[in-house]
Amino acid sequence: MSANAERPTAATTGRQRPSPLLITVLIVAAIIGAFVLFSGFYADVLWFDQLGFVQVLQTRWLSITVMFLIGFVAMALPIALAVQIAFRSRPVYAQLNSQLDRYQELVEPLRKVVMWAAPVALGLFAGVASASQWESAQLWLNRQPFGQVDPQFGLDASFYVFELPFYQQIVGFALAVLFIAGVATLATAYLYGAIRITGREFRISRSARIQLAVIVALYMLVLGVSIWLGQYATLAQTSQGFLATGAGWTEVNAAIPAAQILAGIAAVVAIFFIVTAIIGRWRIAIVGTALLIAASLVVGVAYPAIMQRFQVDPSARTLEAEYIQRNIDATRSAWGVDGMVETSSDARTDAEPGALRADAETTANIRIIDPALVTNAFANLEEYRPYYGFPEQLDVDRYEIDGQTQDTVIAVRELDLSGLDDDSWYNRHIVYTHGYGVVAAYGNQRGPEGQPVFLQSGIPTDGALGEYEPRVYFGESMPDYSIVGGPEGSPNLELDYPRSSDEGSGNAETTFAGEGGPMLDNIFNRLVYALKFQSEQIILSDAVTDQSQILYDRDPRERVAAVAPYLTLDSDTYPAVVDDRLVWVVDGMTTSSSYPYSTHQSIARTIADTTNASPTPAADDIVNYVRNSVKAVVDAYDGSVTLYAWDPEDPILQAWSAIYPGTIHPISEISGDLMSHVRYPADMFKLQRSILGDYHVTNPATFFSGDDQWSTPTEPTADNTEGAPPQPPYYLTMSVDGQDPAFTLYSTFIPRDGRNVLYGYLSVNADAGGADGEVDDSYGQLTLQMLPKDRSIPGPGQVQNTFDTDDEVSRELNLLRQGASEVINGNLLTLPVGGGLLYVQPVYLQSTGATSFPVLRKILVAFGDDIAFEDTLDEALDSLFGGDSGADAGDSGVDPTNPEGEGEGEGEEPAPEGSLQAQLDAAIAQAGTALQERQAAYAENDLVAAAEADGRLTAALQTALTLSAQIEGEAAPEETAAPEDSAPPEETTAPEESPAP
């Protein structure tokens, strides 16, 4: 052939070369797509590295990669081998029918691609499925003993929590691989003539027979292992009988033996298939398979059902007793309530004078400020600017003020950019970057006009909490990202706080000086975050310099969830001023759903109440084991996260500590100041409260009868009490069952039959410790006070109904509702004082005006069947307990009827002396003035002023009536004198010559 012979061209071959432009576009698109994908990973690396937890990301990615590769190889390799063996051992001269010939013609051009691409595709799917199980594999590798064995098999609980789930995943994966390999072998053998079906004739080649028989034998063997493992799984599943979780009589005596029998039969059938592979006869294998199927129906299904129906059900109480006891013991241990102290309480109901004398410290700390109702009061009094805001539900904590522990209602003044007039990118991300300080009010005090009494407030912040870093860059309500920091000596760009007019012109400005986020010190990082947040301004703005940092993922719970993904976090994150810093405290719980014999419950459904209306269920929402194992602290200024091993004995935490070594600090590193603000998590308490509704009963017979089941009362202040959520637990400083007063979390129980009478009072010592940094031995101690069932102790709903229907209370509330006012009932607290149970409820009044907020006007109290309704808690308690409760409340000395303190305090002038008639005239004049003031206040829709005027009117009329009685007594000496308690002060007694009216 000539060297100049014509070469094939696109025209001669019939093919067209791809356009260079198309190739360029595809390459550029691939590069952009790869960069976008890479930028997401790189941003995660920068974020975790800055936070000091990059090893969490590395461990996760490495584990996912290894598990993906294992899953890929474990699926792709057996499938590829099965197909290759089946193809290579095919009959060379097999006579095929015309239909198979057509199939071969279609498949043959793509045979090599399909034979390798199909296993690869299946391997990719299997790799992704395996990668999702990396946590189970890591827990198996780092498993720790529980030191508690199950009563059925005598295995440590760690087998069920760490090992059994992993073994079941392996077995399930192996079954899937063998099934797909068998199908692939069968299809290949049929397509290439190793299996032929002609009419009733079935022919299979020797090689195909051996391969299929071996695969089925392996499948049967693995199936037997799966059935064998299933007997252990019954200990964490619902039984066929009475038990909510665990193996009952039927499982122990029928289902578990049946599983063992079936596992043995499956192993025998596997041997039959091996025999078939050797001798070439299928009959024994087919008979064995049929036997396994029949045994599964008879032994595995029918036999347990028959035993349950005809032997267990008629005698369930006696036959199930042993297994009910197992369930009770395991549930109480797994949920951490087995160490609960149970006591009996007499719960007296008669309100006698001086009854609270022994509970003086508890009485002084009774919280009358409702953290769910004073948000607007905080906002109106302490927001200062529309770009600040407070959460809907404030937090309750305690601080040492002047040597006394004081319950406080506390909130962080965070950013709220919804009210910005100029909502530009620059303002949102460069100028308005942080909130400022905390606002805290005494929980047991009120101002004369019903407003909170602040112990920390103002901008700049000032108060009893002392000096601390007030800037809040990380909180529960922050912008998606802020860019902060700058070169030394450069102008401050961030608004720090608003100045008042007497402090100078303009607002105070600042520059972030910490390490709170990844640096934007090069164009590559800026491009990464410009893509992440879809904003070109990150690249173009001159406010972004080499010293700038970008702060994002700023919610404390989100930050803790990122660095400790194995924790279930408490829904209530609370702030605390600790060691001159403002921090967020996040409680973390380790959970499991595999603890043997322990009853399961849904976390989201259990913790839902008025403070947490609709929590989102997590992937592992159903659990049967929980420990409050970690206390996490997030710095509000720089976002740093510190994890403390609160329960270092928890095996699940020990396993995760081995997976992520060095990420969890020992409890000994908690400072004394931080320790004084650690509290028992509310979600943990709600879960335990729910369990104790049934499992306060420890006798199997009583538990089976179900005649002593309890529930949490519904929220008594809800509009629809029938569909209302449970009443939330409350934090209070109080004494429980004669113990020293401590910061306590409590709840109550009523019978589940719907009667609103108290059966139990559950509390837990929520005070971890003090300045020495040591955990108090009594922290976390649950106490259940069993109330007498032969007497009707009113529950919260019954007490609320009594408050709402009392004639005197109704009259006063109707008076407060005059005009455009709304009366709001605060939280109904229940305190074990005075030898019984005291109910306290603050009553708020709110005008319908646009800028109004609830103010505390009255206090309702109840003890037994007696109630009182006064302006202050101190007055209400004295009124309730026969004129003298024996103890002072926190609002003693407050006079709501005289908010300005007129005529009170030092230098108070004595009342001028004069005749009774003159005093009567003065009282009538005061009443007239108060009446006019009340009418004027109503005309202006100022209900607060109207209520105050009404109080002065009532006082003046009472004085007038008293003086009138005195005057009549002098005019008619022979008549009975006025009651002693209505006599005027001695210094105002009229002289004898005063004329009668």
Question: How would you characterize the overall build of this protein?
Answer:
By secondary structure, the protein is α+β, with helices and mostly antiparallel strands. Helix content is 41%, strand content 16%. It contains 28 helices and 34 strands. Strands 3, 25, 26, 27, 28 and 29 form a six-stranded mixed beta sheet that branches. Strands 17, 18, 19, 22, 23 and 24 form a six-stranded mixed beta sheet that branches. Helix 20 (651-659) links the parallel strand 23 (641-645) and strand 24. Helix 2 (20-51) crosses helix 16 (523-532), helix 6 packs across helix 7 (157-191) and helix 8 (206-233) runs antiparallel to helix 9 (249-279). 43% of the residues are buried.
What low-confidence regions span 5 or more consecutive residues with pLDDT below 50?
Answer: 902-914, 972-997
Helix content percent band: 40-55%
Number of strands: 34
Please identify the structural class as seen in this structure: alpha+beta
Note the overall shape.
globular
The pLDDT mean sits at 86
Strand content: 15-25%
